[in-house]
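User: Let's play a game. I give you a shape written as tokens, and you guess the letters that built it. Ready? Here's round one.
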């Protein structure tokens, strides 16, 4: 009886860890922002359609990582959020991905 109880307790205890996954990531150096990603696929050659009007800026298409895969965001025309702003394209540098943003 004690053996059956011991086996039952061991099985119940070990089943607690059946779905557990542990991930430990360590980063050293870098700029403190961005996230680790594999290198992106090669750039796609695409041509901008005609500008819809004055004051618009073309944001070129780019690849962005989602987990281990990359997805393509097509280029588009848009108005800058404030005067003097320019679009700094996303980049991949030393294993880190830095998303694009509007800058002065």
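Assistant: Ready! My guess for every position:
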């Amino acid at each position: 009886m004690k053996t059956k109880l011991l086996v039952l307790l061991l099985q119940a205890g070990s089943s607690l860890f059946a779905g557990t996954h542990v991930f430990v990531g360590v980063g050293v150096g870098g700029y403190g922002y961005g996230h680790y990603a594999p290198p992106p696929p090669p750039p796609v050659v695409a041509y901008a359609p005609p500008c819809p009007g004055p004051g618009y800026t073309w944001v070129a298409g780019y690849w962005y990582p989602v987990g281990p895969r990359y997805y393509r965001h097509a280029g588009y025309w848009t108005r800058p959020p404030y005067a003097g702003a320019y679009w700094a394209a996303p980049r991949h540098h030393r294993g880190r991905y830095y998303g694009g943003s509007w800058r002065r």
